[in-house]
UniProtKB/TrEMBL annotation:
This is Actin-like ATPase domain-containing protein. Residues 580-604 are annotated as: Disordered. It comes from the Eukaryota. It comes from Fonsecaea monophora. SUPFAM superfamilies: Actin-like ATPase domain (SSF53067).
Amino acid sequence: MAGNAQPELVIGVDFGMSQTGVAYCTAPWTNPSTFQSWTTIASELFNKAPSRLAYDHGTANIKSWGFFADVADKTVDIKEYFKLHLDPEYGEWKLLSHQDARRYYLDYMRCVHDHIARYFQTRYAQWATMRVEWNFSVPTTWKHAGMVRDLLEILKLAGFGRDGPYHSSVVTLTEAEAAAVCVAKQMLKRDDVILVCDAGGGTTDVNIMKVKSEMGETLRLEQLLQVEGREVGSALIDIKVQQHLASRLALVPEILHPPETAERMMLGRFERFKCSFGSPGMTAPKLFLPVVGLPAGLDYPQAGIRDSHMEIDQDTIQHLFDEQVDGLLELIEEQLHALKRNRPGEQVSYLIMSGGLSASEYIQRRVKTHFESGAGAEIPNIRGLRMLLAENLQLAVVQGLVSYRAQEISKGRPPIEQRCAPVSYGVVVNQKYSQQRHFGQRVVRDKRDGQRWAVDQIEWLIRKGDKVTDNGLEKMFKAKLSPAQYRKPWQAQFVVSTRPIDALPQSMAEKDHVRTLCTVTVDLQLVDRHVRNKHWWNFGERYELAHFRLRLIPGSFDLKFRLLSGGRLVNSEDDQVKVDWSGGGSHRQSTTSNDDLDQWHTMS
């Protein structure tokens, strides 16, 4: 967005595994409005649209999306449940490639953008010239800044932030943070500690916050632990049921395409059965699904099919539910134990559930029983804990996403001013050789001063769980520059690790536990530099020593850099600091030699 002018319209987009939600807000920046016009029929209002695409079989062109993508239409190829595959490291249920997931994401988000933009174009006369900010959330499991920035580029290709000169698009919060901002408005009082469990379609995120504001004041939250997530969600139940049906359909010779048939069988009746599973009025012991394509009256005992209907008992469905709720409970308990270790004096007052999976009464009952009267109730820091539900379970993320920006704009301060770093950030350095510390490491000798340096060492600047603010932290660097290097930029390799802080790798040799986050290039023409060995009596080679500071500003999932020298800010954005994220995710090791040691910053 041009200049520092605040947006006039904030639009939040929550792309989910099975559904996508949109909310928006304008001045006076009070409660966000939920976008509901997902079809072209004015009387049809829905809070979310299916995250689904339909491609034409013959041309592979998009035929429809959202509510109009008909799973029962045999002329189209349906694509859905591709969100988790946007993470290149996602390994479970590898149903499609990372590149295919990126293509589906681009196509789907382009459809969403065009539909939403068309809506506002017909209602806001100054749409093309007003200041519009699109805000997006990402799962907590996506911890790599390079990946998030890559997705932001895809969003721009889809059209977000490109409808006018003052339009922009940003990835603002993790889904857990957004949900926490939303539910923290539910009549909570100062010093309440809340554990927010956002259980959606593909991921479940857990965030522990402490309310620092009084009721009626501007919301202030303190994050007590880094946010954690896991691949647990309602859509994963659907995927496993579909796989279960397909495996049984494969025993029927007349069924030529079991996966497609299983997908069509799950429409309607199964969805109602799943949503009502565990509720008091749900008494049916079995579910009978008509087998699409079979004429009436056929029996296939080997596949559990009677009168062309496949029989599924409650135990099968319950097992699939239990797999998800067990993972959910395990994640919550891990966070509670981590809270006990790190903040032993804090007591969790409320466990607040949000997300589509939380709508299940079976899930609610199991979680409530476990933590209020079951085994989980013995955890010391939840005595007297109560379980609550978000006011609108499925909209907590998108409502919180917009509420966060609305408060930041209207009150001048965000709800979350300090975060716990989700990962550890470090920089690859050369360290003065110590036999005890660097035994077995690669060592080079600096011909200018004769000192020995251990190369490819890692200095950890921010450790997982450290409290960080929007101001970030500063780190002093020194770079030795030979005459041939005076006009060349300085580069540094920043790395990231998810390892526990007591097991962080000390060098790039431990490549299985560290990865390159980005390469930062700094123009040293404007920083303080001092000539060394400039007198005739100096025997060493002449060189310049550059002094400067880099300010690291970690967000929910990314890292920004600012260059300072001589007490002044050299760059306001990225004019003197260039960040290359293309190496993100790799385990690249530097190739520092005796000849180019001056290209690498040195730490004593």
